């Protein structure tokens, strides 16, 4: 998930801005950061946008907050692409399997401050109140199904990445990592727990198989850009609206405040889980 920080970005001093741009220009032309055409083709074939793709530790960051792993890129899937309109709830081909009547997914926060721990608890409580077949529990030791940890990255192009995550594996497990930005321009020096919790709630949505509600327009980011429409990777969830849904928890960009499930989000969650 990203936040539009144009005003804050403009306020940076000219010298710092010039240095940042120079560093970014060098970074974009180094061999380590050039994305191969073959990789971009695979990303497009999965139904994701190929603009501003970045190489990250576990794969490739697309749409500002989604990590596609090598497994994602190399798995051949024949599921249908079911697109009804531009703003609806969409899921990925892989979802979390629930072998019994319920499944508990453990979450652990490591190396982050109290606001991120409280934010994780907020997100977990919201999911658990939805009475789904998957439930979440935060643990403080051991190996969790989803680990939440930090990264540090400033604004780029008028936006700052608030957090990132990936999609469920082909074996039916949730994506195992959420990265939360600890840069001051992401959440400020004293992060608001409900704001942080809303972003974690969004990233957990990716971990269990949800795409951006406005992936076809990125309207929540003030854009009109289609993130990608191919044959797989964005399957419409029946019962969700065929018109704009401006308050969904899975909008591509944050509104800078508290955002939780709306009625259509709960329909989507209960359809899958």
From TrEMBL:
PROSITE patterns: PROKAR_LIPOPROTEIN (PS51257). GO terms for molecular function: metallopeptidase activity. Keywords: Hydrolase, Protease. GO terms for biological process: proteolysis. The keyword Hydrolase applies. SUPFAM superfamilies: Metalloproteases ('zincins'), catalytic domain. It comes from the Bacteria. The keyword Hydrolase applies. This is Protease.
